[in-house]
Sequence to fold (700 residues):
Amino acid sequence: MLEVHGLAKRYGEVLALHSLSVRVEQGQCLVLLGRNGAGKTTALRCIAGVIVPTSGTVRVDGIDSASDPAAVRAKVGLMPEVPGLYERMSARTYLDYFGSIYDLESALRHRRIEELLEKFELVDAADRWLGSYSKGMRQKIALIRATLHRPRLVLADEPTSALDPDSARRAWEYLKELQDDGCALVICTHSMEEAETLSGQIGIMSAGRALAVGDLAELRGRSGLKSRRELRELPTLQDIYLAIVGNHHELAEPRSA
Amino acid sequence: MSWPSLDRHKAELVARRDLRDATNEIRLILAMVTLTLAIPIASAVGIRALAYFGGGTAVVNRLAVVGAFFVVFIPASFSLVLALEAFVGERERTTIEVLLSTPLKEAEIYAGKVAAVLVVSLGLCYGGLIVYCFAVFPGLGFFPFGVLVALAVSTICQVAAMVAGAVIISLNARTMRAANVMASFIILPMSVVLQVEAALILLGRAELLWGFAALMIVIAAVLLRMGLAGFSREALLAREVGLSKPLRRAIGSVRAAFQGRPGIIRLVWMRRTPIAVAAMGFIAGIALGFAAGRTGAIPGQVVKPVLSSLLGASDGATQGQEALGIFGHNLLAFVLAALLAIFTAGLSGFALTVLPGFLVGYAAALSSWSVALSGVVPNGLVEIPAAIIAGGLAIHIGASAIHMEPSGGWTTRILRALADYTRSLRWLIPALALAAVVEVRFG
Fold:
């Protein structure tokens, strides 16, 4: 579904992303963890075909993003960290606008909008201007917009950071439903709970590099941490993350050419 | 660059949304409509009062036409505000990233946004103009149809130029505050255009308005093309890193522009096309000057003072002062040509060779070729090639200023062109000094 090879992005003197290679199959989820400025958002933007990578290749559903970026964007649903909603539009009009951009047929579009508004309990607020929405409601609308056209690949940057625990769980359930339908997910997050809930694979990033990619068991092995015998527990993802990033501390320094 | 293909339906989607966004703020709409109606009505009252109290038919008629231009200018300037909001505003609120993540092409977003602003602005402009026409001309007994059509055409281009200028600003400004300040670079030239149009009408040369409208069409087309070329996902989203220490970065950019640049011989070869254009400009200038002198298209009293002032500038001065005067004059022309090239799309570089050529041709038409050439030989053998090289390099500066690429690098290209010009002055300044000495000793 998604094949990324040697992906790099340079902004002037700053190397924001360095040689990222990952593969996400249909129905799989890759969670990218990393501190602020680790290159997660840049990776998502490059994969989404929103910015052009300095080097490397991105293929979505077999389509090379360099040769046909519009076709890649049609298959991808990007949910940026900031929802970026038009404040003077109602949720229905807003979603209808984006559905039209994705060429969703009118009846299907309206049905899907209603279905998702109901799923996220936004039906009552659907005719209010988005400017009056709370942070969490905005994030829900952004998630609906990114998935309205049933993309083959969803790229979400901190999709539940503004949601209450109940809404976050609902969003995770929704993302898992998409996975079950064959959609691939790439999620950037700082929430270990989210990572553990959603992930098949976890990529730990620091200073533009992927330090480790694998499932929880693989990363546990790579982290060098032993099980916490005194508590009779395995190391948590948070322990693993801190251990891996800590081992590569020098990479976290500001980087330039 | 060719104009890219676009899906009109997609562009319409963007346009409709932007249009709705621009028109669903009732206070903004009320302010714009009130101004659009109040200004023509107030102007009409003034003109009618002037006519009633015996302002003189010629004065009233000309003021009535000038008034139409002012009435249109205010709503036309709204286009700048709306365009900045549509481009910089979306960027500032990060809504643009969402739009750019869809399958829409850049050209569809650009066309949709430009169309939405044009519809609102032109609607207001023409609305104001119609109100003004109904309020003023029925009582005056004449209707300047031709002038008003020229105004209508010119207005479309002025609005388009302002919108395209706003896009170029949006690519270089990250906040509305910065964009509003930078908008002065658009509104000031546009107000000059308005003044020139008013001057043409007051001078009774309204027929020249069509030439002005044609010029505005060219300017609008160049700016729209620049905006389209520069409006890219990369330009809008990818340059948000490493923005600290702006002064140090600016100095670094200037320094980098001077590094690794070619020497004069290689530079002349690299810029052979614009230099050839400048050389053609000299020949075209001679031909135009000769034709103008022969046909009397430009009266002698206009050109002769220029020729006399050039010839008589050295009266009473020593040879050293004379040489210094010629050298200073030429050097100033070279420097101004380079600086103005950025704002004139390189026309100032073209003028650097066309104008001297014109004067030679004009002098030849009034006297003879031998007399005309004696004015430029032998110093011209050094001066003219120097002017052709400088003119060509200035044309390249102008070309860099109106050339944008999706990958960015606009500032870098202009800085490099300016650096090449500055470095070439190491050779051109001695050439000008030599020419000045030769002119004084042997001219």
